[in-house]
Amino acid sequence: MLYQILVRLPVCQQNNNAKGPSKWQLVFMQSAQRTEFWSALLEKAYAKLAGSYEALIGGLSSEAMEDFTGGITVSYAPRQVPCPRVLFHTILEANKRSCLMNCSVVKMKTQDALLYCESFVTEDGKPTDEPPGDTVFVPLVRIRNPWGSSREWSGDWGDKSKAWAAVSAEEKARINVKFKGDGEFWMSIKDFCKFFSDLEMCHLGPESLAHARRQAGKLNDKRRCWESVSHKSAWRKRLSAGGCRNNLRSFASNPQFQVTVVDPDETDNDNTGTVIVGLMQINLRRRRAAGDRMLFIGYEIYRRRTDGTGPLDTNFFRYNRCAGFTTHTNKRQIPMEPSAQELTLERALRDAFAKVAGADLEVDAYELRDILNIAFMKEFKFDGFCLETCRSMVAMMDADQSGKLGFQEFKTLWSSLRLWKTAFKKFDEDKSGNFNSYELRQALKTVGYRVSNKIFNCLVMRYANRQGVIEFDDFIVCCVRLKTVFETFSAQEKTADGVSALFSKDKFLSAAAYV
After folding, report:
1. A Gene Ontology CC term for this entry (predicted)?
2. CA 54 from chain center: how many Å?
3. CA 84/CA 91 separation, integer angstroms
4. 131 near 233, Cβ under 8 Å?
C-alpha cells in the first residue's frame, strides 16, 4: 500500500527570471538532485523536535547520534591515552557492539571524520587483534570524511603511502582497501592518537540494533546486544535538589536509582557485566530557545553491599566512598562507562607490565616509575613520579614485603591511581597541575578519606609546597600513605571500644618503617 504525505518545506526565490518550480530553492538542507527531498524532510522533523530551525544551530556530533538512534555516547581524548593499543582494543570492543564512532580534530583544518574499525578475522569469523600467519601486526583504523572531499591523511598508511607495498593483494581485497581520493583513508592507531583530539562512541540501544538486523535480514547476528532502561526524574527546589557530595546533609535527597549488575555470559571466565550510565537534560534545545540555561549536572555511583530496595540515607554516604563519579558540568548529557573497558584495559596493562617486568614478572620501584611516568606525564604538568613516591606505592601493595609487585598487585594499584587521578582533575580546574591546599580536605573526601582538623593540618604541612598548593605527585603520595595507614589500622586487633588498635613493638616499627 502506498501513502502520499504532504509536507511544506521552506524555500526562497533563487532566480527572478526563471519560471515554474525551478525558480525556487530550499532554504536549508538540500540534495544535489532537485527531485530528492529525504534530507530536507528529516531536517524538518528534527527542527520540529527541537522547536525551530534556529534551535538546530551548533552542537556536537554526539547529540545527533543520540537523537537519531536513542543510544548513549561516551567520549575519549585520543591524545591523552597513555597507550594507543588500549584505545585500539576499546575500538575493537565497541565494534563488536555495533557502536557508531565519530572522531574529530580541534583547532586544525581537518574536517570531522567517521571512524570505522577494521579487525583481523579468524576462520570462525570472530574478530581478533592478531593477524593470520607469521606477519607483523600493525593496528590500523579506517576513517571516512563525511563530506566526501579529497582531504585525507597523507602520512603512513595513507592512500599514497609506500607502506601498502608490503601488504599482499589478497589482504587488501579482504579488508576492502581502495585508493580513490574520496575522503576515506587508513592510518595507524599511533598516528590517530597523535593527531585526533576527540573520539565519540555511541552505544546503540536494543531497538536500533534489532531494527538494523531486520532490515539487513540478519536476525541471527551474533554481535553483542544491550538491554536498556530509562528513568525520568527532576531536581526540585527544597525537595530533591540535594546538590553535590560537598552538601552531605542534603546529598541523600537527590534522586537515587538502583542497578543490579549480572554476568550476561556464563560460558566465559569473566564474572563481570558491562554497564553504561548516562544523565541527560531533556528538551534542552527547546528550553534554550526560550532563554533557559543549561544546568551543571553530575552523578556518583556507590556499591551497595547489603540487599535493600529503599533509598540510601545520609549515614551511608558519610561512611562509604563512591565507586565512580563524574565532574559536574553544563553539558546536555554526562555519560560514564564504569566497566566496559575493564577487560581491554587489563589486557593492555598486562602487555605493558610484561615488557618492563622481565623474566620474573615483577616490577620494583624503579621499573614502576618508568611505567607510571609514561602513562601520566602526558596528562599532567609535572616532572614525573619521584622514586620515593614509587617506593611508597610498592610498600602499600607489597603484602609479602618482597620489594616488588606482581601483576595482580600492580592492577590493584592502577585502579586506585585512576580514582585518585580523577579526583585530582576535579579540583585542578585550570589544569595547572596543582590545586590550593584549602581544597585538600574535599579532595580526600572525594576518594573516601575523612580526617580530623589536627591530621589535616599535618597533611597540609607535609604535602603543600611553598606556594601553598598541592601538586599531582604530592597528592598521590598523600593518598598512598593514607591508604596504607588506614588499612594497617583496620587489620590490627582492636580494643573493646573499637577506637584503638593493639600493636606489638615489632609490628608498629615494621608498619612505620615500610610505608
Report:
1. cytoplasm
2. 31
3. 11
4. no
145 is annotated as an active-site residue: yes
- Return the closest-CA partner of residue 78 out of 223, 210, 190: 190
Q: Which amino acid is at 510?
A: S
For 316, which DSSP code?
H
Contact 425, 436 (CB under 8 A): no
- Taking CA atoms, 14 is separated from 33, 48, 244, in Å, by 16, 25, 55
- Pairwise CA distance, residues 89 & 79, whole Å: 16
Owner of C-alpha cell 574529530:
104
Cα–Cα distance for residue pair 300/297, rounded to 1 Å: 11
Per-residue pLDDT of the chain (515 residues; tens, 9 = 90+): 565 666 788 888 776 665 655 667 888 888 777 778 888 888 888 888 888 888 888 777 888 888 888 888 888 888 887 778 778 888 887 887 778 888 887 654 444 455 544 433 222 333 334 444 445 678 888 888 777 666 778 888 888 888 888 888 888 888 888 887 777 888 888 888 888 888 888 888 766 666 555 555 554 555 555 667 788 888 887 788 888 877 888 888 888 888 877 655 544 555 566 777 888 887 777 777 666 777 788 888 888 877 677 888 888 888 887 777 777 777 777 766 543 344 445 566 677 777 777 777 788 888 888 888 887 877 787 888 888 888 888 888 877 778 888 887 888 888 788 888 888 888 888 888 889 988 898 888 888 888 888 889 989 999 998 888 999 989 998 998 888 888 777 766 666 666 666 666 666 666 665 55
Domains of the chain: 11-57 (no CATH), 63-202 (3.90.70.10), 229-339 (2.60.120.380), 358-513 (1.10.238.10)
CB 119 within 8 A of CB 128: yes
Which grid coordinates belong to 348? 593492555
Contact 100, 63 (CB under 8 A): no
- The model carries a pTM of 0.54
CA–CA separation, 510 and 515 (whole Å): 9
Please say whether the beta carbons of 486 and 515 come within 8 A.
no
**Rounded to whole angstroms, how far apart are CA atoms 453 and 436?**
17
User: Which position among 95, 102, 145, 254 bears the catalytic label?
Assistant: 145
Residue 202: all three cell numbers together: 555511541
